[in-house]
Amino acid sequence: MEWFESLFIRHSALQAVIVVSLISAVGLILGKVRIGGISLGTAFIFFVGIIAGHLGLSLDPDMLNYIESFGLILFVYALGLQVGPGFFSSLRSGGIKLVSLALGVVLLGTFMAIGCSYACGVPLSDMSGILCGATTNTPALGAAQQTLKLLGIDSNGAALSCALTYPLGVVGVILAIALVRKLFVRPSDLPSADPEYTRNVYIVSFRLTNPAIFGKTIHDIALHSHHRFVISRLWRDGQVSIPTSDTALKENDEILVVTSPDEVEALHLIFGEQETKDWNTGDIDWNAVDRKLISQRILVTRPELNGKKLSSLRLRNNYGINISRVYRSGVQLLATPDLTLQLGDRLTVVGEAAAIRNVEKMLGNAVKSLNEPNLVSVFIGLILGLVLGSIPLSIPGISVPVQLGLAGGPIVVGILIGTFGPRLHMITYTTQSANLMLRALGLSMYLACLGLDAGAHFFETVMRPEGLLWLVLGFVITFVPVVIMALVSMRVGKLDFGSVTGILCGSMANPMALNYANDTIDGDNPSVSYATVYPVCMFLRVVIVQVMLMFLL
Q1: Which of 28, 89, 259, 359 could crosslink 229 through cysteines, CB 3.0-4.6 Å?
Q2: Are residues 270 and 396 in the same domain?
C-alpha cells in the first residue's frame, strides 16, 4: 500500500510525472471516441483531469504550476515556430481582415459580458472571471486578479468562476465550429486538400497582344511594372522553353505566369489576352504540359543556403532552370528574387532533366539531414519568449502594467524566429512530425494540470445556484460571438472555413479547439490564421479586462 501511495498519492516528482502521464493517456484514448460524429481529441485530457481532481488526486502546487506553465510555453512556441515562415506573408495577403474579424469576436464577447453583469445581477468582479473562463484566457484572469487586488476587491470569485466556465469555454468553441460546419458550410467554403496550389500564388497564362511590350525583355517589364510575377514557361512556335530575365518577348508568345490573385488584373493589362485554362487545380500533369521539360520539387537541405536570397544563387542563368513556387510550412510563396531561403523549403523547379539533377545536388534534397531538429534554437527561443512575456508594458490610463505572459511572449518569439531566424543564419527548421510532437506533448501537460487544478472544487460549485448561472452565462459568451462572427467571416469576409476556424480559435485563445480544427480540416489554414490573430487578441483581452474593471467598478 505504501508503494501505491508513493506512486499516485504522496507528492513527489515521480508522482507528478505518473499522474500527469496517466491523465494524458486516458484523455487521449477517450478523445478518439466519437459522439454524434464529434470527438474532442486532446481536449478530453482536460475533463479527465477534472474528474481526477474531484476524486482527490493532486500534485505539489509548485510542481503543478511548473508542468502546467512549461506545457503551455512549449505548445505556443512550437506553434509560432511552425507558422512563423508564412505569418507575415499571410498578414500582407489578408491578415488585416483576419485581425479585424477576430477583434469582432473579442469586442462582442466583452460587451455581452458587461450586459449580462447588469442584466443578471452578477458582480463585475465575478463576471471578469466568467469572461476569462469563457474565452479560455488564463493570462487575462491573472491581469483581472491583479487589478481586483489593487482596487481592494476579493479576487477569489473571479478565479472560481473562471475555473467553472473554462470547460464549457473549451467545448463551446468546438461545438460552435461543429454546428456552423454542419448547418452553414458549403463544399466551396472548405479549403483545398492540397493547399500548395491555392495559397498565396495564382497561376495564369497569357497570349501576348500588347504592342507596348513587344521586343522588351522580362527584366525591363518587371522593372517598370512594379508588379510581382514569375514567368515560368514560354511557348513560341510550338516549342516550350525556360525564359531568362534577358528573354525578349514577341507578339503571340504564350507565357505561363505565377503571381498572386490580386495581381492578375494588372498583368492582364500588361501582357494582353488571358487564356481561359485553369492552371490552379491539383490534377495537372506538369511533365506532360512541358513535353521535353520536367517539373520537380526539390528540398533545400544544405545549411550554407539558409538565409540566402534566391537571386544570389543565379539558378536560372547558371543551370537554365526556373523556380516558380516555394512551399514553406504549409504556405506557398512566390519565388521572387528577394525571397530568403530557409532549410526545409520545397522549390518547384522546371527545366531539362540534366539541369534539374545538377540543381538537386546544389540545393541538397537530402531528407535525412533534416530529420534531427536544432534544439539550440528551440531553447534560445523559449528563453527569449519568457523574457518578452515578462516585460511590463504601461498603457496610458491603466495603473497596472500589462504583460504578454507565458502564452503571448513565446508565440510572438516563435513567429519572429521562424520568420527572421534564417536571415540571421539560425537553423530553425524542424520536421513536421517533430513540431507536432512538441505541440502535442506541451498541450497534454497543460490540459492535465489545468483539469487537476479546477477539479478539486468544480462539482460543488456547479451545484450552487450562482454556479449554474455562471455556467449558462459563460456558455452564452463563448457560443454566441463565435457563431455570429463565423457567419460574418464566411459570408461577408468571403473566407474559407479553415481560415475562419483559426480566427475563432485564436480570438478565443483556445488551442484545444485549434487542435480539433486541425484534425478535421485539410491544410494549414487554421494554424496560419490562428497565429496571425492570436498575439493581438491575447494582448487585447489582457488589456480589456483591466479597462473593464477599472472604469466600471
Answers
A1: 259
A2: no
